[in-house]
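User: structure tokens for this one?
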Amino acid sequence: MVVLVVGVVLAVVSWSGGSPVGAVLQLALFAVLAAVFSPLVFPRSVTAAVAARAGKPIVYWRPGCQFCLRLRFVLFGTAGRASWVNIWADPEAAAAVRAVADGNETVPTVVMDGESRVNPDPHWVRARLTGQSK
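Assistant:
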């Protein structure tokens, strides 16, 4: 909601400054950002323990990670087929990532069908989540 409000304020400033096209573009950009970051559109993070019990693929991520953001964009609409675990909010999750990433907390790390992949190709993840590739 905050992102959308900021977008509206900037659009109003641009509009009043005589740039209606800029205002529309700014508002559109902030609306997209608000949708991408909205917990209403994107699955909420769970703990590693909850994710393990869910039986779905697990995506370990952290806020601010550009590669995690890229994965979120590609998985838009199918992200709910996986459990998302924020490694900064769950020490158990951070330890799980370090165990498969040579001691590093490299994200995104995806665990599917017992196989872990560190920073996998987002299109590979999407194909696996949608059943298009085995």
